[in-house]
Amino acid sequence: xxxxxxxLSLDEVFIIACNLISIPESEGANGQINDFNIDIDFNIxxxxxxxxxxKVIVSISGNNPENPKPGYSFSVVAQGIFKYDPGVKVxxxxxxxxxxxxxxxxxxxxxxxxxxxxxxxxxxxxxxxPGINMNHLLAVKSRSHIGDEQA
Length: 151
Hints:
Helices cover 26% and strands 34% of the residues. The chain has helices at 92-119, 134-144, and strands at 8-23, 38-46, 53-62, 71-84, 149-150.
């Protein structure tokens, strides 16, 4: 099946912060490794100098470092610059949808690959971030934060 090119493209992506530690199993542990909650947050910023672009920042952390479980404890923050094709007319509603349903998942995928690569040589092997329920993530975010922020 032929695909239609999206009017939104990833212009650049950076890992802007990263922390990873390995938490050893304690004596009498139950053998569960990397059994912890994942926390994700994101922010979307308007680019005042380039109106057809957005800066999106996604942070993902796993395993509370204050009370960690055996396995990896990590925090990664990625920043992506996304641009809309100026030759394609896109409604504001559709632009917002592209950011939430395309740009954010793209950055989550970038972080997933980064964490997997970082942990590949770790004592517990490569950690693969689980699938994310984007509908739930967006619903929780909309309840806690309203509107875009200016960058």
